Each structure stands twice: as C-alpha cells, then as structure tokens.
Amino acid sequence: MVRVGCITLPFSGDFNTLLIFSGFAIAIISVSLAFNMVTPKGPAIAAGSPEKIVDALGTTMIAQAVWCIIYYNYVGASVLCVFTTGPWEMLDGKKQTEKWSAQIGRFSANQFEQSVVFIPCLWMYAVLVDSETAGALGVLYCIQRAIYPLVYVIQGRFTFWFENITQMGYAVNGTFMLGCLMRGFGYDYITFAQQNGILVPVLGAVIGVFTLLPGVGVTLPWFGLHTYADSTRKQAETAAE
Q1: Distance in angstroms (rounded) separating the CA atoms of residues 42 and 126
Q2: Residue 230 and residue 227: Cα distance in Å, rounded?
Q3: CA 86 and chain centroid, separation
Q4: Closest CA to 78 of 101, 94, 97, 100
Q5: pLDDT per position in the chain (241 positions), as tens?
Q6: Residue ranges per domain, the chain?
Q7: Could you tell me which residues come within 8 angstroms of residue 228 by beta carbon, excluding any fewer than 6 positions away?
Q8: What is the pTM assigned to this prediction?
Q9: What is the secondary structure of the chain as a DSSP string?
Q10: Are 205 and 174 in contact (CB under 8 A)?
Q11: For residues 218, 201, 180 and 108, what is the CA-based torsion angle, rounded to 10 degrees?
C-alpha cells in the first residue's frame, strides 16, 4: 500500500489500484477498435426519407434489442435461483454460498443501474449525432454486458478485476456524451471524429470514467457537504449521550 496525501492506494489484493489503470487501457483500446470499424457519416435524422432513417438506425436497433435480451436473461437467472432451490427442487440451496443468489441478482441490477445512462445516450447520439458509430459502440456495449458476470463466476466476490469489464461501458457512454455535447454546442463533431479516430475514444473514456469517479461535476461538492453535515450530526448525538 502507498499513502498519497489523504488516500491509501493498495497495490495488491482484491482492490489493487493497478487494475483501475488496466481497465482504463482496455476501455480505450476496445472503444477505439469499435469506433474505427465504421466511418462517421452523421445523424440518422439527416439520412433522408423515413425508410432511410430506419435503415441508418438498423445496427442501433439490433444493439438495443440484444441489450433487452441480455437483461431478461439476467432476470431469468435470478428467477432460477428461487425456483431451482424451491418448488422445482433441482438444486440443494445448502450447497451454495450465502452470496450465490445475491451475486446473480447483481447481473441484472448492475445492467439496470447503467441503463438510465446508456439507453438515452445511445439513441440521442444515433439520431442526432452519428448513427454509424452509435451502432458499433452499441454492439460493443452489449458484449460488455454479456461478460459482466465473469468475475463473480471466477472469484465469487466483488474485486477491482471488474474494472477490466465495467470501464468499457463507461467509455462507450462517455463517447456518446462527448458527441452529444459537441453537437449540442454547435461543433462539427463528424469532421472531428473522422480526423481523430483515436482521440475521440480516449476523450470518451476520460468523460465516462471520470464523471463517475472522482466525479467531475457535482459529486465531490455534495459528497463533501453531506459528509460534513453528517459528521456534525454524529458529534451532536455523541455529545447528547
């Protein structure tokens, strides 16, 4: 462990800090590969006739449908925990750990938690920014969702090995955010993306990862204020005892 200012950074065990950096590198590489598999052409809404707009959104629709299938699969896995150890009597629940069903529940729960960012960003980006890269990144996101349970299967607990999977999703969402912000502020995102096929995924990874932690935006101010207010209440409770 290394103490840096007010924080201790472990470099071994389940929360090895190096895994954060490996996850960030994997995110950049994977998003860069997906992003450069197609050529940015522009928003689906500008494709022309309604039929052409639908055609431009074809891969995005497939990605969304696959996302829904994966989500239902994970919900089904949770249902199996109940019925295979209950009325169907297929498994002996006493032979499973206490974490077994809870961890399987995280398969769908994590996907649901991330959906409030992924789904609106995917469609806003596809319709109003660029349908080509939206589809490619949407497919990559589905791959990331499909392999999410891997660490639980192998290690049986939450560790920073998850970073090698989850940061891929943050980078995809960050790339969507980047495109939407640039287009919303009037910048020529398509030309920028065509000329900077690597820089865009790097910036997307930075936006997606860093807005989560350390929380570029309102995270740190509200965390700090709430922590201070909470400790003040705790001190008052202690003094009153």
Answers
A1: 9
A2: 5
A3: 33
A4: 101
A5: 899 888 999 999 999 999 999 999 999 999 999 999 999 999 999 999 999 999 999 999 999 999 999 999 999 999 999 999 999 999 999 999 999 999 999 999 999 999 999 999 999 999 999 999 999 999 999 999 999 999 999 999 999 999 999 999 999 999 999 999 999 999 999 999 999 999 999 999 999 999 998 888 899 999 999 999 999 999 999 999 8
A6: 13-210
A7: none
A8: 0.95
A9: -EEETTEEE--SSTT-THHHHHHHHHHHHHHHHHHTTS-----GGGSSSHHHHHHHTHHHHHHHHHHHHHHHHHHHHHHHHHHHTTTT--S-GGGS-TTHHHHHHHHHHHHHHHHHHHHHHHHHHHHHT-HHHHHHHHHHHHHHHHTTTHHHHHHSS--GGGHHHHHHHHHHHHHHHHHHHHHHTT--HHHHHHH-TTHHHHHHHHHHHHTTTT-TTTHHHHHHHHHHHHHHHHHHHHHH-
A10: yes
A11: -70
Distances in Å between the Cα of 77 and the Cα atoms of 68, 71, 84, 147, 155 are 14, 10, 10, 14, 18
Upper half-sphere CA count for residue 125 (Cβ side, 13 Å): 30
Distance of alpha carbon 200 from alpha carbon 197, whole angstroms: 6
Token pair for 41: 């052409």
Tokens (6 digits) for 129: 């920014």
| Residue 158 identity | F
Q: What is the dihedral sign for C-alpha 199, 203, 205, 206? A: positive
